Amino acid sequence: MVSKAQASSRIERLKWASIAFVSVLGLAIVGYGVYYATAKRSADAYVEGSDYTLLDDAQPKGAPDPVVVREYFSYYCIHCRNFDPIVQKWLAAPHDGVRFERSPVLFSPLWSTMAQAYYALASVGALDENHDRIFRAIHDGQQQFPTPEAIADFVDGHGVTREAFLAAYRSPEALKSANEANARARAARINGVPSLTVGDRYAVNMDNVPRAQAFAVVDFLVAKVRAEH
Q1: How far apart are CA 131 and CA 54, in angstroms?
Q2: Which residues of the chain have pLDDT under 50?
Q3: What local confidence, expressed as pLDDT, does residue 229 receive?
């Protein structure tokens, strides 16, 4: 006969055994998830449809030299500002046979003005000096640039004069470049930024891929584009 005390002791042991089993099982599941994620990344086994997608209007396979890695962005996008240090870190390393390009998006009139300003600054060689300044002015200083004149006042004396900037901004070349950027984003069906494409064939799935791992996927896709040729 089992006494009440013995039965209580047995129940207590079973309870703690069950807790221990559940804890071990939970740790095993978490451990497997970490192992799977690590193994997947270490093997560069990125999955189409999850980590990246084939662009609907992917360009025909031609000579992949250089492979163009393109970031679609806007200075008004806080996520682009936060992503920029990751971009800069990747750019600091050598990437033979790869050309990196930024392509500003024109999602609104305000963004369109800044997109044209981007190409104006690039044409006069003042982009590098003002790139981070513009990000900081908008997102740290809550500054707005509703007109090209407002941008001209901001960049004056930073690699370009006010007058030279406005001349570059109003040039047919800057307008053409902005229009081409808009057409490019539409063709790639870019509906959010930051976005990354590789070789005009693949896009990194920025909704699924952590920002810190985005360029690991880019490197994988660069190799994939080359292998396809």
Answers
A1: 30
A2: 1-8, 10-11, 14-40, 42-43
A3: 79
DSSP run (H or E) holding 102: strand 98-104
Residue 33 is predicted with a pLDDT of 41
pTM of the model: 0.80
Closest by CA to 49, choosing from 171, 183, 205, 182, is 205
Strands 195-198 and 67-73, by their bridges, are: antiparallel
User: Would you tell me how many other CB atoms lie within 10 Å of the CB of residue 135?
Assistant: 19
Cα–Cα dist 154/133, whole Å: 9
First to last CA, the chain: 80
Name the CATH code of domain 52-227 (choices 3.40.30.10, 3.30.750.24, 3.30.420.10, 3.60.20.10). 3.40.30.10
